[in-house]
């Protein structure tokens, strides 16, 4: 890798476009391996580095002044990459180009982090040399020292990479082993259309070669994988073998996690890992934070943090997965995705209270009201400003089905929503925060939102 980057960047004008974790890792790696590199950093915000920095609204105005641009994930180019005369690449693209034969790349709208972590944990449990990074928060270039150390010991490791749509968007190379979990409408604020979002994701396999492998949960039959949950047993049938695990020994919650684990089983089985070791790994695997995680019980009410939930399908899965779920908190930043499936589900969901908050919460609630719910009081438009304090703990709408009533509340923020949840949820039941929306605009990220939720449920 060091030689590749040296050859790619030597005597070139280099632009690091975006200076987050990946941009910084790229900058450091080039500085370390290229003699006197000609580097410029471009970012919306000012940055402190030795070299020239372009910042502010016009930070992307001069891309074609450079020979090569390393674009960070999430940076939206003004034009399609192919319309630039300069070379547009990224850390992840160059990393996959060199190490593709050893990479197990994982993408999908939901479940990437848990699935890639479970693959890594299973290989570690089997004492197979492996490193792990990517969208999980560890830039790929930071893995190279460990890869080199293992190679020096005669052990070329597997490289498990969680890959986001933003990392894959301009990636013209695919990993030898690709895992494509699922595909739902997401990130339309970035891509504009679902087709463009799908095109970015599809790069996980589009450039594979003969003999490469694709494991996908979009159509399990492509690999002959048959997952299931029956009689309190989780099972997978694959290549004539049946792998099973008692549900009470499996810490991950929900059918979606079982489906993703089926792919992990198939991958690890194909790598020659014995079933008893895979079983040990699955049993010992600890769920990641903010992913339908049980975070505590207060005054007889159980609370689950699903802050990673940014689409309607995630909230649907969460509600289906938690036994005794009575109250769900929904809402966040509006990125223009379609919530029709979630709205239809909520109309007949086995849940008593839905607490809507923030921009998408009010949007979903208003759309539900427009469907013609019976309301004691009509609201032309429900917003944070339309909620007066004495109405906070009163539902703004209710629906009756099969002799059961579901109550809908409008809360101005997460703090108010948690207070309402505590007041309207019965002892012995569960509250789920599964926002079905991004956290941005209200929180720094989904982790901060989840931590705030945990703080609020403990607040007297």
Summary tags:
460 residues, alpha/beta, 7-stranded mixed sheet, 15 helices, 33% helix
Describe it.
The chain is an alpha/beta fold and about 450 residues long. Helices cover about 35% and strands about 20% of the residues. The N and C termini lie far apart (about 55 Å).
How does the major sheet shape up?
7 strands, mixed
Structural class: alpha/beta
N- to C-terminal distance: 54 Å
Strand percent estimate? 15-25%
Helix content: 25-40%
Low-confidence stretches: 374-379
The radius of gyration over CA amounts to 24 Å
* Number of helical regions: 15
Q: What would the principal axes of the Cα set say about the shape? A: globular
The beta-strand count equals 20
Summarize it.
This protein is α/β, with parallel strands linked by helices and 460 residues long. Helix content is 33%, strand content 22%. The strands form four sheets. The protein has a seven-stranded mixed β-sheet with strand order 14-15-20-16-17-19-18, sandwiched between helices.
How does the SSE layout of this entry go?
Elements: H1 2-9, E1 13-17, H2 21-33, E2 38-43, E3 52-55, E4 68-71, E5 87-89, H3 91-99, E6 103-107, H4 112-125, E7 130-134, H5 144-152, E8 158-162, H6 165-168, E9 177-180, H7 188-191, H8 194-206, E10 213-216, E11 225-230, E12 233-238, E13 241-246, H9 255-270, H10 275-284, E14 293-298, E15 301-305, H11 312-321, E16 325-330, H12 340-347, E17 353-357, H13 358-370, E18 397-401, E19 404-411, H14 414-424, E20 430-433, H15 446-457
Parallel strand pairs: 1-2, 1-4, 2-3, 4-5, 6-8, 6-9, 7-8, 9-10, 15-20, 16-17, 16-20, 17-19
Antiparallel strand pairs: 11-12, 12-13, 14-15, 18-19
Helix pairs in contact: 4-9, 4-10, 11-12, 14-15
